[in-house]
Amino acid sequence: MRVSGSADVHGIKAVANIKSARKRARQAEKTRLHKMGLRSKMRTHIKDVIKAVEKGDKKAAVAAYSAAVPVIDSMINKGVVNKNKAARHKSRLNKMVKALAA
């Protein structure tokens, strides 16, 4: 059974011995779980834009894109994604939406 967190070669979870290291491990796990939800939220918004573009519905695509951009931007501030990755996502989504107009 593989355990998340720091593990050695055999998949056994490494247990910290120092109090501050144990606390840090707890915080890291808590942060990881929190960021997982945020990342999922961002991906959902991205998928909504892609689905609208695939359907060819320009109005829905523009609305989905407008909803996705603030979410993607907020993920930068929360440290979920790097600013370059966020810019890449926004650029590609915008390109897809604009291609519908042509």
Describe the structure.
The structure is a single chain. The chain has helices spanning 19-55, 58-77, 83-101. The chain has 102 residues and is mostly helical. The chain has a domain at 42-101. The longest helix is centred in the middle third of the chain and has 37 residues, at 19-55. The N and C termini lie far apart (52 Å).
In short:
This protein is an all-alpha fold and 102 residues long.
What is the beta-strand fraction? under 5%
Class from helix and strand fractions: mainly alpha
Outline the low-pLDDT stretches.
Answer: none
Count of distinct strands: 0
Distance between the termini: 52 Å
Number of helices: 3
- SSE series: HHH
Radius of gyration equals 19 Å
Report helical residue fraction. Answer: over 70%
By oligomeric state, this entry counts as single chain
Arithmetic mean of pLDDT:
90
Q: Outline the biggest β-sheet.
A: none
Globally, the shape reads: elongated
Q: Main traits of this protein?
A:
about 100 residues, single chain, mainly alpha, 3 helices, elongated
Please outline the helices and strands.
Blueprint: H1 19-55, H2 58-77, H3 83-101
Helix pairs in contact: 1-2, 1-3, 2-3
